[in-house]
Amino acid sequence: MRIRIARVITEVFAPGVLVAVLLMVVGFHAGDQPGVSRWWGAPAAVFAAGIPMAYIVRGVRRGQLTNHHIPEREHRRGPLIFGAVSVAIGTAALVLLGAPRELLALLAAGITGLIVFGAVTAFWKMSIHSGVAAGTAAVLIAVYGPIALLAVPLVPLIGWSRLVLAAHTFAQVVAGTLVGALIAGTVFPVLR
Question: 192 CB contacts (<8 Å, ≥6 apart)?
């Protein structure tokens, strides 16, 4: 039962899911400004979550990747680089189209995270699930204030799921959490 619950948590709060939802939420929030569409998050989510996830699914179907969570550290670098390129192209397009600054700041934080996790992946397997969860909580707090602290308990819950599934060590979960929170908690607020 414990493993089944951990699998559900890992899937429901997978990095691609959290990234897509967060971009939609921040894009919707940016639409509170006069003359700004609430739907800027949709194209951002395509470049930051949809295209990278399609690349990963393609790798799984071709037998190049074990599964969509990419458990083997040595297989993570390519998808992380591909994801960073996809987000960079999407960001450039959204800049040219006049997307709101808040959304562009979130994409910049995402690119930063992909670069840092990609660099660390060369020698160690930090938990991307935990990093994205902590980053999501940090961004929500920056956007919505103290009420968003309600999202914080999801961070240890997601970390727990990765430990129960033996996908990471405790140190990898903690490091991913700290790095994700640090990047999102600094890059996003500074650029927004």
Answer: 101, 102, 105, 106, 142
Per-residue pLDDT tens over the stretch 26-60: 999 987 888 788 899 999 999 999 999 999 999 99
Structure tokens at 129: 């699930």
Do 113 and 88 touch, CB atoms closer than 8 A?
no
* Phi, psi of 148, rounded to the nearest 5 degrees: -75, -5
H/E stretch holding 59 reads: helix 51-61
Other Cβ atoms within 10 Å of 159 Cβ, number? 23
Q: Label residue 61 exposed, middle or buried (CB < 10 Å: 0-12, 13-18, 19+).
A: exposed
Cβ-based neighbours of 53, under 8 Å, separated by 6 or more: 16, 68
For the chain, count helices (H), then strands (E): 9, 0
